[in-house]
Amino acid sequence: MKMSDPASTPLSFRFRYGGLSDIGRRRKRNEDGFLVVDRAGTKDKSELPWSLCAVADGIGGHTAGDVASSMACDGLKGFFEKLTEKKTGVRSLDALRHSLVEAFFAIDRRIGRLASTEEAYAHMGTTLSSMLFAGDQAIIAHVGDSRIYRLRENGLNQLTTDHTFVQDLISYGELTPEQAAVHPFKHMLTAAIGTQEPLEEVFYDMIALEAEDRFLLCTDGLHDMLEHERIAEILDLGKGPQETVSILVDAANACGGKDNVTAVAVFLE
Fold first, then answer.
1. What angle do CA 45, 80, 150 make, to 5 degrees?
2. What's the sign of the alpha-carbon dihedral 111, 112, 113, 118?
3. Can you tell me the distance from the alpha carbon of 34 to that of 262, in angstroms, rounded to the nearest whole number?
């Protein structure tokens, strides 16, 4: 996809955001995290206006999971805050894409260093799924099994692919999605941020935005509990983004709330 470079390109839509994280019904600790950073109204003409959203689902148990997800969200926020402090600003979509992927690798190294030096954090890691909006496009960067969905007139589409053992089996034609949903290893990740193995690859994509697009970033505590059709139905209720994520979280808990539940909604107008 062709990426434009003019520093004066404005965000082409009005964005509304909502975010919520809940402990769920069965967990003793919330190891999820989320992030919303809005720089759509920047006055700096040297900087391309942008906004950034992310969700993270920590792994490792005890306090390690929430430390990892918090470090991921804080690290992503801090990386872009430092980037925008530079005199040159953020001038292009290509620069934003490069910076977003670079941030993932930097966060992976930082969490990995802590995990290697502190025994309590030895097995921690986190998923991280993000969207960075600029102009009339969005940049997706993703590792793990948290998901990003888009609701458009043609229905609800999943924009990310789970980095899991069972998803690999589906891709190889060895499992159906229905079989994968009940597989005992359905939550076994093949890629995560901050584990003892250095991150090898960050999935990223560029997508064109359209008016009335509705995006949902969520952890598996939500998408495991709610059917695809139910997620689409709630996104299409006509509520605001904050009320929508509240309805989604309540629905996931009503279906069992087996895990922490986290959602960020981004609505375009």
1. 95
2. positive
3. 7
In one-letter notation, the amino acid at residue 207 is I
Burial of 154 (0-12, 13-18, 19+ CB in 10 A): exposed
The partner residues of 205 in beta bridges, in order of sequence, read: 140
pLDDT tens digit string along 194-215?
987 889 999 999 999 999 999 9
User: Which pTM was predicted?
Assistant: 0.91
The residue among 220, 15, 209 whose CA lies nearest residue 127 is: 220
With cut-offs at 50, 70 and 90, classify the pLDDT of residue 232.
very high
The total number of residues written for the chain in this structure: 269
125 token code pair: 């890691």
> What are the extents of the domains in the chain?
15-165+192-268
User: What is the CATH number assigned to the segment(s) 15-165+192-268?
Assistant: 3.60.40.10
Which one is predicted more confidently, 123 or 244? Answer: 244
